[in-house]
Amino acid sequence: MAWDWALLLATGILAGTLGSLAGLGGGIVVVPVLLLLAGTLPDFASITPAVAAGSALVVVVINGLSATFAYARQRRVDFKSGLLFFAGSGPGSYVGAFFSTHLSVALFNVLFGVLIVVVALLLKRGNTRREGQVAWKVKRHYEDEEGKTYVYGYSPLLAVVLTFMIGLVGGLFGIGGGLFFVPLMVLLFRFPPHLATATSMFVIFLSSLTGSVTHTVLGNVYWWAVLWLAPGAWLGAKFGAAISRRMSVSLLVTVLQVIFILLGVYMIWGGLTA
Fold first, then answer.
1. What is the DSSP string of 153-194?
2. pTM
3. Sequential DSSP letters for 3-18
4. Which of 6, 23, 128, 166 could join 197 via S-S bond, C-beta 3.0 to 4.6 A?
5. Are 77 and 206 in contact (CB under 8 A)?
6. What angle do CA 196, 202, 205 make, to 5 degrees?
7. Whole-angstrom Cα distance, residue 269 to residue 14?
8. Alpha carbons 51 and 59: distance in angstroms, whole number
9. Which of 139, 188, 144, 192 is nearest to 165 (CA)?
10. Is 152 strand, coil or helix?
11. pLDDT tens for each residue of 93-113
């Protein structure tokens, strides 16, 4: 249809903005939209869950690269930790991409939705937890623009194992893993939310690049859709990074919770009614 390109471009902008703002990478928006189009418009009928995931990952690469540039200028990316997390998520994304071809649309939607809601509930719980002493092998410090200092850290081996699992899920569902990177860093490693979202985008860029190459080799990318989604995702990432800078920590966490729950319920409903 003549207006398909406009719809895809708008989806890319929305995905890029929300993905960058929440550290998600944008795939969490692109995948549901592509599956919705596949079920309603003949031109998109060839899009399977695997193709939606593969196409979304290519968009996530663009979104992640754009957001990383923007956040790096704000000095909010922990590159050293990000590279360690990628050591686990990169291989995981590669493995997840292969498994994506074995999921039906209904099962894909339900599993995706349940995961999103669980993460939202965990994040809500984590946001109300009191600070405590945690035994970390790697301890790092971060000072925000208001002069407040945060202490966070992790055990490298545990970090690699957990990020491998996140990468696998990211490659499987086409979300780049951002849905779980941010809660992992905030809840377990005690990253301040603003630093977590920024660092998540860097890791997402690297791991999604691995997963998208795998999906491309498998033929799971709808390039015509990517052609219009990608420019929107690039612009949206800039918008999201700018908006995030002006938000308080508590408001940012609340936004994450609302986004996760709404999308989770939508995906579960779509899977059960498919």
1. EE-HHHHHHHHHHHHHHHHHHTSTTHHHHHHIIIIIS---HH
2. 0.77
3. THHHHHHHHHHHHHHH
4. 23
5. no
6. 135
7. 21
8. 12
9. 188
10. strand
11. 888 888 877 777 788 878 878
